Amino acid sequence: MKFVVDSFFEEVKDGALRVGAQVDGKKVWVESDNASLQNAAEAYGCAFLIPALLQGLTFKLTEPVCMEWKKNVQELTEMLGDAWGCATTLPVELTTYKREGLPGRKRAQFFSAGVDSFYELLTAKVAPDALISVHGFDMDLSESFRYEQLKRSVEEICKEKNVESVFLRTNIRENSVISSVSWDDAHGGVLAAIAHLLSEQFYTVVIPPSFAQSSWRSLWGSHWKIDPLWSSNVVKLEHGDASSTRAERIRRIAQEPLAQRHLRVCWSERVQHGNCSSCSKCVRTMAVLHDCGQLENFSVFDSSVPIWERIDALPYVALTVTYDELLEKGVEPEFEGAIRRLIKRSHGVALRAEYSLAHNKDLLEANLELENQIRSLQATINGMSNSRVWKAGKVLRHVRRLLK
């Protein structure tokens, strides 16, 4: 299947500058009240490349792209194909031209107020000139109240750090090409797309780190090997410092007053502001903060319930790395017991899931074999029904019925 990205547009909508394009016949847009946006075909290439690869799709960009960007994403496509088993051929039909950026542009960092965002902001060797926050990325556009809470936090942080704030809104996550794949795989390309649309203001845009370089985790949506390959001659994408694990990053920001007042790791719809203090992301963060002796200083969490009770309330976690690190370091007995029980539950779930997957694979193969046999039998019957013997038999059977 092939889709087209065309009808690029710029307009003012309710006082905000909006840029966008038609993607497979549906409008995709990004808008801002306080930033200068410039439409760029590279943006849509970044956003839709990985979803297209994962679904075996191809698409056409009707506007030209930077030659350097094409070279980079060809390398990216080959790398992802080798890692994920998808196509290694660039799935985009495009034309190129030589682009040059304007001098004197600034450095920006994406900022969600999470652990990785704070870690990058507080430890970066080169400080950003601006923080970028995107409504429609982690929060749905319908969650206006929750986003306003985040926006106020970002404004306070920017004021204290003496940097600019850039706020945007986008419906890109609602597009069916993107929503049909895991957001874990698609989100990095969407961030890169936003960076290209901000090319008039910023030359370098930093995506905060995700998994540590030492992690067993293979390539996913935002990764230290992937993010730089979204770059062009006009915009340089950087992946933040990924040398530390998640637990190490939490420890680094644990004594920072800004993080203590504004850290947001929870995207649960159950809470209108702050953190729910009970989901797996909240409890993981709280566990490390407890071990640091800093949990009570984080007003954004409810620390009234002992951390081991929070851990015991979790049915399981997908990743136990942070808890493994806590055990290796050594923690108090009640804390350790809760962690060991959680790890045991989580491993049990993983084993059952693995068995279910293997069992379902056997059933799927059996069903496919049965379908093949049915199709073969149907073809045989169809062939017989067209034969002279079969037709003669039908005539004789009809005569017998008449004689009765």
Structure report:
The chain is globular. It is an alpha/beta fold and 404 residues long. The N and C termini lie far apart (57 Å). A hairpin with a 2-residue loop joins β1 (2-13) and β2 (16-23). It has a ten-stranded mixed sheet with strand order 6-4-1-2-3-10-9-8-11-12, with helices on both faces. The chain has a two-stranded parallel sheet with strand order 5-7. The chain has two domains: 2-246, no CATH class; 362-403. The chain contains 13 helices and twelve strands.
Instruction: Give the count of helical stretches.
Output: 13
Low-confidence stretches: none
Rg (C-alpha, Å): 27 Å
Beta-strand level of the residues, as a percent range? 15-25%
What is the domain total for the residues? Answer: 2
Q: What's this model, at a glance?
A:
By secondary structure, the chain is α/β, with parallel strands linked by helices. 47% of the residues lie in helices and 16% in strands.
Which properties best describe this structure?
404 residues; 2 domains; ten-stranded mixed beta sheet; two-stranded parallel ribbon; 47% helix
Question: Could you give the topology of this structure?
Answer:
Layout: E1 2-13, E2 16-23, E3 26-32, H1 41-55, E4 58-61, E5 65-66, H2 67-84, E6 92-93, E7 96-97, E8 106-110, H3 115-123, E9 130-135, H4 144-161, E10 164-170, H5 176-179, H6 183-197, E11 202-207, E12 236-239, H7 246-253, H8 257-262, H9 280-292, H10 307-312, H11 321-329, H12 333-385, H13 388-403
Parallel strand pairs: 1-4, 4-6, 5-7, 8-9, 8-11, 9-10, 11-12
Antiparallel strand pairs: 1-2, 2-3, 3-10
Helix pairs in contact: 1-2, 1-6, 3-7, 11-12
